[in-house]
Specification:
The protein is an alpha/beta fold. Helices cover 38% and strands 21% of the residues. The strands form three sheets. A seven-stranded mixed sheet has the order 6-7-5-8-9-11-10, sandwiched between helices. Helix 1 runs parallel beside helix 4. The radius of gyration is 28 Å and the shape is elongated. The N and C termini lie far apart (80 Å).
Length: 429
């Protein structure tokens, strides 16, 4: 469909240092993105500007310098560490005589490579189509308006308009299919809520070690690699938390600074797991020099997807890359866990993480002494089943005196199953 130069695996990277910090991107991160996409870097061209050039983004002189580098190095693609407008891409391709890809296009390409599930593939295609729809004109500037014919009399339709119409139809079709998947997910969430199973969601900057931690805690084999966006599709597993019981742990897509809006929109359904979790584990690569900035970027995305009001526990991962740091829990003045320092790769401090999750989810624990008549053996069995009985004795009347400690969730569950409030057997000591 596009009259474009064929892309390849050899790239020249272009990075601009802007005066305004909000417009700045990270050059090291571009290197990681490019290697994650499976592209090799031949050369890096950097420049400084106050504002982007309207025609070439980097200015005419610098554009000619990049063109010479492309020719000298034999590159077949130029990747910009910034978002380019469709006209800038078109102008740059004309001068470089090769394909130009901006930061958004690069991230979309990585997402397309990584998507494994039906839903993930649909979401990536949706984001790509929305991105392409603004860039359609490049392929059809040479075409004239189609002539009317039988059944086509009237003003006619340009090839560009035809493609836009086809794109709109495809986007509409994908949205319909995603709506179905979203309803299925919602059904699963509702049934978990009905069963009152708490959900813990892993969030964090891309490559912080979320999937490695997920695998270590759940004994799963989710794809984990030292590259950006190794995980795209949300994965759910059951884990057993002391004092809480069955809990769902969800692994989600990593965040990145200036995450393209098309992607945030496309992955909103996936990120619902994060938005509706009972607790977020914000995983941070503690050895990354940009960790403070990365944490800020995650906070921004959480705000964008309206998930910034969910209780959060910081998980400082990769302590094995630092000197003299032992696994430990940091607490506030009231003793509530604020952060856990661990290494998922080396299995260090995982017990502390589970302890902190237990404390935070089990904040609503109920302690009671129950005087249960022998006719209510079902209640006693239920309490034993969830390890809720701390001590037991027999009273003079032959009833069970049970010292119990259970979560408010289990309290509600038992009441529902028995059809009455177990508080009726409660005695004060």
């Amino acid at each position: 469909m596009f009259d474009r130069y064929e892309g390849g695996e050899q790239a020249v990277l272009v990075h601009v240092n802007f005066a305004d910090e909000n417009d700045r991107e990270d050059l090291d991160e571009l290197g990681l993105l490019v290697s994650s996409a499976g592209v090799s870097t031949l050369a890096v061209v950097t420049t400084s500007r106050k504002t982007p050039d309207a025609k070439y983004y980097i200015g005419t002189g610098k554009a000619e310098e990049v063109a010479q580098t492309v020719q000298a190095e034999g590159a077949d693609i130029v990747i910009f560490n910034h978002a380019l407008s469709p006209s800038q891409e078109r102008n740059l391709e004309a001068i470089f005589k090769c394909r130009v890809l901006d930061r958004t296009g690069l991230i979309l390409d990585i997402f397309a490579q990584r998507a494994r599930t039906h839903e993930g593939k649909l979401q990536v295609e949706l984001a790509q189509l929305r991105h392409i729809s603004t860039r359609l004109i490049r392929g059809w500037t040479h075409l004239e308006r189609q002539k009317g014919g039988i059944g086509l009399r009237g003003p006619g339709e340009t090839q560009l308009e035809t493609d836009r119409r086809l794109l709109r139809a495809r986007i509409s079709h994908i949205l319909g299919r995603l709506e179905k998947v979203s309803k299925q997910r919602e059904q699963g969430r509702r049934s978990r809520k009905k069963a009152e199973v708490p959900t813990v969601s892993l969030v964090g900057y891309t490559n912080a070690g979320k999937s490695t931690l997920f695998n270590a805690v759940t004994d799963s084999e989710v794809y984990a690699a030292d590259q950006l966006f190794a995980t795209l599709d949300p994965t759910l597993r059951k884990i057993d938390i002391a004092d809480v019981g069955e809990t769902i742990l969800a692994d989600t897509v990593g965040f990145i600074r200036h995450l393209p809006h098309d992607l945030v929109a496309a992955f909103k359904a996936t990120l619902t797991e994060t938005r509706e979790a009972d607790l977020q584990l914000h995983v941070v690569d503690v050895a990354d020099v940009r960790r403070a900035d990365n944490m800020e970027q995650v906070a921004e995305v959480l705000q964008e997807i309206e998930a910034d009001d969910v209780p959060q526990l910081l998980v400082f991962n990769k302590i094995d890359l630092l000197e003299d740091i032992e696994p430990h829990i940091e607490r506030n003045d009231e003793g509530k866990p604020l952060s856990v320092w661990l290494s998922a790769q080396r299995n260090l401090g995982l017990d502390l993480l589970l302890q902190a999750i237990s404390e935070l989810l089990g904040l609503n624990m109920v302690e009671m002494t129950l005087d249960v008549p022998s006719s209510e053996g079902r209640l006693r069995a239920m309490l034993y089943q969830i390890n809720g009985i701390m001590q037991e004795s027999i009273s003079e009347t032959g009833s069970w005196v049970l010292g119990a400690r259970i979560s408010t969730i289990d309290h509600q569950k038992i009441n529902k199953q028995l059809g009455y409030d177990i508080e009726k057997w409660r005695v004060e000591h």
